[in-house]
Write a structure and sequence with these properties.
- The protein is α/β, with parallel strands linked by helices.
- The protein has a single domain, classed as Vaccinia Virus protein VP39 (Rossmann fold, 3-Layer(aba) Sandwich).
- Strands 3-2-1-4-5-7-6 form a seven-stranded mixed sheet, with helices on both faces.
Length: 196
């Protein structure tokens, strides 16, 4: 009798993540973005929005090295051991308007935020658009001039509007679908290069 796979979502990416001590396969999405666009450099200051369970934190910290640092925000508590150059706040993204004050600035803002899904493609896309807009709004006060932005968004009716808004704030805008994204997923990444 054939043994059934316990986890129907398990694939080579999730197995590699486990083998390489990352809590989730999503690390490979950021790795692909990094290979293509070189968005994070040594010494950068990174803000990771929707950082749970911590894979992007670990990968970003590795890229920045000890001369840089990574700050993560998520509603859920990150439970893994983190390097010294990483700090995490358990906060709702909508409550962070004055969270950092005037002096805190970042070289790059990355967002892998996703809404609590409802099963309705339309509703989920609208909620994703709202989260993505919140992430983009945060680049106005927190991102250095010349800084970069990486944001996941679900494809829907509002996608073009969001993509145009990124173009208003950045010198270049790119659309990227990582190979490590599940084929059934409607997620796509928008990359903004060079904050105006």
């Amino acid at each position: 009798m054939k043994r059934q796979n316990k986890n129907r979502w398990e694939d080579s990416y999730s197995r590699n993540a486990k083998k390489n001590s990352y809590p989730a396969r999503s690390v490979y999405k950021l790795e692909e973005v990094q290979k293509k666009f070189k968005v994070i450099k040594k010494g950068d200051r990174v803000l990771d929005l929707g950082c749970y369970p911590g894979s992007w934190l670990l990968y970003a910290a590795k890229l920045t090295g000890k001369s840089g640092y990574v700050v993560g925000i998520d509603k859920q508590k990150v439970k893994i051991d983190l390097p010294e150059n990483v700090k995490v706040y358990c906060e709702d993204i909508y409550n962070t308007l004055n969270f950092f004050g005037d002096k805190e600035r970042f070289s790059i803002i990355i967002s892998d935020m996703a809404p609590d899904t409802t099963g309705s493609k339309f509703t989920d896309a609208v909620r994703s658009f709202e989260l993505s807009n919140k992430a983009l709004d945060m680049t106005d006060g927190l991102l250095d001039r010349g800084g970069n932005f990486v944001c996941k968004i679900f494809q829907g009716e509002d996608f073009e509007e969001f993509y145009k808004k990124v173009g208003l704030s950045f010198k270049q805008k790119k659309i990227f679908k990582p190979q490590s994204s599940r084929k059934s997923s409607r997620e796509i990444y928008v990359v903004g290069l060079g904050k105006k």
